[in-house]
Amino acid sequence: MNKRGSAESMAGEGREPENVWDELVWRGLIQVSTDREELRALLAGPPVVYYCGFDPTAPSLHLGHLVQLLTMRRLQLAGHRPVGLVGGSTGLIGDPRPTAERTLHSRATVAEWVDKLKSQLERYLSFEGDNSARIVDNLAWTAPLSALDYLREIGTHYRVGTMVKKDAVSSRLASAEGISYTEFSYQILQGLDFLELHRQLGCVLQTGGADQWGNLMSGTALIRRVEGKSVHAFGTPLITNSDGTKFGKSEGNAIWLDADMCSPYSFYRFWLDTDDSDVIARLKIFTFLSRPEIEEYEAAVATDAPDRAAQRRLAFEVTTQVHGSAATETAIRRIHDSSR
Ligand SMILES: N[C@@H](Cc1ccc(O)cc1)C(=O)O
C-alpha cells in the first residue's frame, strides 16, 4: 500500500504543465464544459478550489472512478486545491441510472463504504503544502436539513420541467418502472453540495464524468440563482474500447481499485491486454507520462512493433499508481513466470 503523500502516489510530481486546461484537452479529458475560454483563464490563474464527488455504492471505487481521481490529481499538480467529496448522503438516495432503480443499502453499510472510499481517495491526492487536499462527506450538511427546509429553501429553486429533462430521469420516465421520488430528488442534493462547498470553501469548479452533466448543471444553476455567481464544471468522456466492448470490465465484472476485490495481478493483466488501437488514448488518460514520451509510443505502435512496449508501460504505470511498486513487481514476475 502507498502511504499518503509518498513518492509513489505522487507520480508526476514536479512537472509544471504550461496550462493545465490545454493539457486536459490534449489528454482527451474534456467532453463537456461550461465556457471553455473562461475555464482556461480560470485554471491559468491563481489556485482555485474544485471538487469531485464519489458515491459509496460499493466497498471500493473502480476504473471509471480512476479517470476522476487522476484528473483531480492533474489539477492539484497544477497548483489548484482539491476537495474530494464522499457521498454519505447521496449514497443513501442513489443517482438514477438510465436502466433501473438502485438497491437502497442500510445506513450502516453506506457508512462503512464511506470510510473505505475516503481512504482510497486519500491515495490520489496530496495533503501537503498550500494546496493541500480536503476530504468531505455531504452527510455533514444534508443530515441536519429538515424536510421542510429542504422543500422551502432548496426545492423552490428547481423547476420540475427542467429536472425531468435530465438524461437518466427522462429515460427512466419512459420506462415501465418509472422513477421513485427518492432518485428523482438526487440532482437537488448534488446541486446543494456544490452550493455548500461554494459557500464554505469558495469552490468554483466541479468535475465528473460526462454522464454527470445534469447533476453538475444542477449546482451551477443553483449557485447562480442563490448567490448570483457563475461557477464552472466539466465532464470527462466515458471511456470506450474501439472494438465496441465495454471498458473497465473483465468477464463482465468491474475492475475494482481495492486489491482484495481485484488482485494487482489481474489489474496488471487487464492493462496489458489493451488493444493497439486504444493504448495511446489510455496512456494519455491514465498515466502522467509527458507528451513527448507518449508520442514516442505512438510512433512505435504505428510501426506494429511486436514487443507491446506501450501496453507494458501502461500496465506498469497504472498498476504502480494504484497498487504501489512492490505489488506491481510481484505481478510482473508472476506474468513472466507463467509465460516461460
Ligand atoms: N453523482 C456522482 C457522485 C456525486 C455525489 C455527490 C456530489 O456532490 C457529487 C458527485 C456519481 O454518481 O458519480
From TrEMBL:
Database matches in Gene3D superfamilies: HUPs (3.40.50.620), Tyrosyl-Transfer RNA Synthetase (1.10.240.10)
Keyword terms, alphabetized: Aminoacyl-tRNA synthetase, ATP-binding, Ligase, Nucleotide-binding, Protein biosynthesis
Pfam families linked to this entry: tRNA-synt_1b (PF00579)
EC supergroup of this enzyme: ligase
Catalytic function, reaction form: tRNA(Tyr) + L-tyrosine + ATP = L-tyrosyl-tRNA(Tyr) + AMP + diphosphate + H(+)
CDD domains noted in UniProt: TyrRS_core
PROSITE patterns, A to Z: AA_TRNA_LIGASE_I
Annotated InterPro entries: aa-tRNA-synth_I_CS, aa-tRNA-synth_Ic, Rossmann-like_a/b/a_fold, Tyr-tRNA-ligase, Tyr-tRNA-ligase_bac-type
PANTHER family reported for this sequence: TYROSINE--TRNA LIGASE, MITOCHONDRIAL, TYROSYL-TRNA SYNTHETASE
Protein name listed in UniProt: Tyrosine--tRNA ligase
